[in-house]
Amino acid sequence: MKVGYLGPEGSFSYGVAAANFRQKDLQAFHTIFDCLEAVESGQLTKAVVPIENSYEGTVHDTLDFLYHQGSLYVEKEMVMPIHHCLAVHPEMAAQSTHLTGIYSHPQALSQTKRYLHEHHKKIPQTVVESTAKSAQYVALHGQKEAVAAICSEQAAELFGLSIIAREIEDSPDNQTRFWVVSKKKNLTSQKDLKKMSVCLTLTSDHPGTLHQSLAAFSWRNINLSKIESRPLKTQLGFYFFLLDIVIDCPISLIELAFEEIHLLNGRIKELGAYPIKIIK
Amino acid sequence: MKVGYLGPEGSFSYGVAAANFRQKDLQAFHTIFDCLEAVESGQLTKAVVPIENSYEGTVHDTLDFLYHQGSLYVEKEMVMPIHHCLAVHPEMAAQSTHLTGIYSHPQALSQTKRYLHEHHKKIPQTVVESTAKSAQYVALHGQKEAVAAICSEQAAELFGLSIIAREIEDSPDNQTRFWVVSKKKNLTSQKDLKKMSVCLTLTSDHPGTLHQSLAAFSWRNINLSKIESRPLKTQLGFYFFLLDIVIDCPISLIELAFEEIHLLNGRIKELGAYPIKIIK
């Protein structure tokens, strides 16, 4: 078995992947796109990718791939608390008040926006592919330049950096949902399936089309824990919707709602039904 | 009058601002946050900010500020076609097949993802605050390093760069909606108001709460051109919704729907009603 994740070692995706699979089966990828494409092509058995952060919202690269390119299914969701730290090269620890650059993944920069605005307002920010990559960069170049990484404490330790500020995320309840995806659909008879995610595309555009589709869930007392629109990438004003459906009723009832939506000219793309694991 | 925009000169926001206001009234800002905060504090009269791109979706910095921090109103929407080009320093034009780095704004990198994946897959990407800033960077550093900017042709010309590829955006219908915001609310009697945007927060969480709120619009035949959820930034699973309402009925009817939603324990924050101008 081969399991891909958004690398390098020390990334948050790595943390989730390592908690679920054997170290020797793991393989790091540079981008979410490349990682998911490797599952699609059969090069990987599974992939561990982020889908949503409590502060920054949906990870568009993941959702857009699953809707537009993929024929993949979610087999498990894992929710992990996210703590960021600011780390420098150990030889720069004394000059950490005079930083010349801050490196990180865009979502980490965004999740620490208020902290950076208050403490490092004028420092140029550079985006790299992952938080662990920023730690790696600082380990390699941080001896000469006073650059800092925003990454997990695990990554800072892995690359031998000095942590100059801990838990710098703006929201104390910062969490990220990760999905394990594969080409295999979970059997709907499994008792521990907690949620189902689907993409809904509406093919007509009269007032209340979305409302009508939601009615198919609402009158059956089926609860949606999330509804989000994303552009169809054709032109302004055309969207698909991600729906997260709570499974607290027979799945066949949910499937009847899909059937009804289909008859109303809505299109449902199933991303899968899955259990949820909370990582402490 | 002072009008802020996401600078520097040559940015797409600049293009929109310059088409609507006098050159001498314009002032460039480094970030959307700083620009909107300057209107909030009274330092600026208005600001021109992007709100949505047809390919990449909502500009979260703008929406999150208007929902969480702002007491600002949208007074006008402008829709502009977006074309990106790849530009290098004129002395590097001959070596443009051996780029060492590509600089741009995250949305521009995202809007040209497929092009970059096909033509410049392994080239490191660096994010800067705006597309024009990337052109400026290449003008300053592109003589020694083979770096390229993704920016408007206008910006490439402004900074004296050589364009090596035109219209590299993945979607041929790439458009961006810009909002002019100020502290003043448009009068609802204006005849040319085309759309109204509001943020809806649901205070209860039983199945169908959103469906119930949408019913207030649906049974009145009020059309929503967009509905999008964004995290409340508290914890996973809590959202507010951006609703774009088409004004093709008396505004008082829309206000009755708001009143009904309010009685159902929903909270509406009005972002304003506004005319729409399409820029060719």
UniProtKB/TrEMBL annotation, chains A, B:
Pfam families: PDT. It catalyses: prephenate + H(+) = 3-phenylpyruvate + CO2 + H2O. It comes from the Bacteria. GO terms for molecular function: prephenate dehydratase activity. CDD domains: ACT_CM-PDT, PBP2_Sa-PDT_like. Residues 198-280 form the ACT domain. PROSITE patterns: ACT (PS51671), PREPHENATE_DEHYDR_1 (PS00857), PREPHENATE_DEHYDR_2 (PS00858), PREPHENATE_DEHYDR_3 (PS51171). The record marks 176 as: Essential for prephenate dehydratase activity. Its EC number is 4.2.1.51. Keywords: Amino-acid biosynthesis, Aromatic amino acid biosynthesis, Lyase, Phenylalanine biosynthesis. One of its GO terms (biological process) is L-phenylalanine biosynthetic process. It is an enzyme of class 4 (lyase). InterPro entries: ACT-like_dom_sf, ACT_dom, Chor_mutase/pphenate_deHydtase, Preph_deHydtase, Preph_deHydtase_CS. GO terms for cellular component: cytoplasm. Residues 2-183 form the Prephenate dehydratase domain. Pathway: Amino-acid biosynthesis; L-phenylalanine biosynthesis; phenylpyruvate from prephenate: step 1/1. PANTHER family: PREPHENATE DEHYDRATASE P PROTEIN, PREPHENATE DEHYDRATASE-RELATED. This is Prephenate dehydratase.
